[in-house]
Amino acid sequence: MVQLLTDIFYKLMANGKFLPNSPTLMNAGQPEGLLSACFVLPVNDSISEIFEAVRNTALIQKAGGGTGFAFDKLRPTGDIVASSGGTTSGPVSFWRVIAETTNAIQQGAHKRGANMGMMDVGHPDILKFIYAKHDQMSFNNFNISVKIPDSFMNSVYENPDASHIVTNPRTQQRYTIPRTVDLHTYRVQDLRPFDEIQSDCFTVLDMWKMIITNAHATGEPGVCYIDRVNEDNPTPALGTINATNPCGEQPLLDFEACNLGSLNVSKFVLPDKSGLNWQALGQATEFAVRFLDDVIDANHWPIPEIRDVSLGNRKIGLGIMGFADALVLLGIRYDSDEAVDFAKRLSGFIQEKAHQTSRKLAQQRGCFPNWKGSVWDTKHHTPMRNATCTTIAPTGSINLIARCSSGIEPIFKLAYKRRALDGAEFVQLHPLLERLGTEQGWLNERVRTQLRLGIDLRKIGGLPQDLGETFITAHEIAPEWHIRIQAVFQSNVDNAVSKTVNLPVDATVEDVDRIFKLAYKSQCKGNTVYRDNSRENQVLSALGAPDGSSSSAPRPRPRVTFGQTSKFRMGCGTLFVTMNRDGEGICEVFANLGKAGGCPSQTEATCRAVSTALRSGVDPRVMIDQLHSIRCMSAAVAKKSNKGVDVLSCPDAIARAIEETLASKGSDLKSPFQRMCEECGHPMRWEARCTVCDFCGYSNCG
């Protein structure tokens, strides 16, 4: 039985149908291997407890886990420290200690640590928290979210001009915040008791505007509707949920952990694209739940408190990835009622199967130890092996392994740059587009080049007509559809949903306002927006916009490049053309005449323009096509009397040099920009400075 399950688990992962979270993939089989991805650590209001949290952070992140923190319990800046008679430097200063700890910890050889920082909107230091990441170099290993209770949202709708009241967690004394305070340096002594004059203090609407304005400017903070989170707390007798994991999809108690996994639903689309193989998906769901429950027992727990809480609740989070790809294969637009209906059926199906499997495991292995008094006991009267079963994670690493779209997000771009940990950038097409284009035979260098330039699929000739209707990307989708998809999944998920509404660069603050409010009204537990290019060094970015609304800057030239020099006889002398490469391909061109003459300024201008184009991602074959056969009077005259003159001009020589460089690297020159045989029309290849047609034998040497 054990070997049979091992084989089943292996096939699910090898076929890309199911993958556990990355710590399980990276650490399983290792001594003291940490297999869970998500942790929440308490940050309590004493020096010893704060630095205990720092220590625990280091242990978890060294092993590959991500951590979430709530800073609500820390007293505000300037508050009294009785033991020393001094005052505290406030939550942000201790938050910074945790951030620096993360910077110092390299998680094995895999990745840097990730964190979530949360603070209740009613904390006295909330303004400092909201503006902490306005400097994009600060806390860059943290995502942040403001915890917003229902009472605050009710005020936003019903009484927005009311003064916003904050509460000191140590004394429970309430205050309002004068508009005159410095947003980054104010102290509790600068606040005003709430029962004094409040006419010049920040209102509820002011606070809301600060949240949405910063989210528009930098993508942060996100919002967490904390009362919604605790409504679904399966073990309320054990305490209140105060924070989530780094991406927000996994609310957890203090010292609790959860291990996640995701089904690639695009793998379950039937070959005829008529629907899903629901039977196979159901079986995969059952085995995935069994797998994740087994991981709990195989796990190495870095801290005793985490072991106790995690084994007591046995939370797992099974989710999906490849949702957008499945829609494409099924011929469904992401922004459609049909997609919402499909999402509802899909999420409900997985939720039901996951719960059924957890019930079966409870009969075989017993309920989770804290079942008594949980909602499964008091409300549902159902034995369960796991306090929670389902989560929608972003799948930011495992979707790359599975080569599918991430989580329930729409396809970001059809062609995009991906920034790696070391800052290296990779240009790639969306995997499903690449696969379909290869299978159907329409993907060639012409199409690749146009996709990299950001040209709409519907404007590229020779492609199936239906592609442009279903291969829609994140910025083409109205925000309301993002939220509708998120909300329908949230209705069938035990934990929460990681979802970012990706916005174009010209999105407004009012757009963010509508998105956050719609997420709240739609029963979502939280929400994040990201406006394109609102931060430096974003992980995914478009390659360029053909409409001129934005441009792709050329990549920087490395200090050292390597290349080759070609020699050409010209009408006015000998021309040497040097082509240099960097890690991504040809990056620069230099041309120099061996003796006086020619038109050096024009040649230098051509070289500079070509170099800039090449470093901006323009396909070298495009440059060949543009420069090839440009004629110069001097070369034309010289060619009649001197057969050694083998090019028509300096630009023609540069085109030849690019061709030779590509050929020397074994590049496939069968492209739309390749020369075609003048006799039979078939592609010609480059050989010894001649173009040769293998079909009819015709050759052209200049």
Overview of this protein structure:
This protein is 37% helix and 17% strand. With 702 residues, it is of the alpha+beta class. The strands form eight sheets. Strands 1, 2, 3, 8, 9, 13, 16, 17, 20 and 21 form a ten-stranded mixed sheet that branches. The chain has a three-stranded antiparallel sheet with strand order 10-11-12, with no helix packed on it.
Based on Cα principal axes, name the global outline: globular
| CATH A-level architecture of the largest domain | Alpha-Beta Barrel
**Strand fraction band?**
15-25%
| Structural domain tally | 3
CATH topology of the largest domain: Anaerobic Ribonucleotide-triphosphate Reductase Large Chain
Give the beta-strand count.
Answer: 28
> For the residues shown, what is the average pLDDT?
89
Q: Work out the helicity level.
A: 25-40%
Number of helices: 23
Structural class: alpha+beta
Largest sheet: 10 strands, mixed
Uncertain residue segments: 545-551, 666-674, 685-690
Multimeric state: single chain
CATH class category name of the largest domain: Alpha Beta
Radius of gyration, whole Å: 30 Å
Distance between the termini: 71 Å
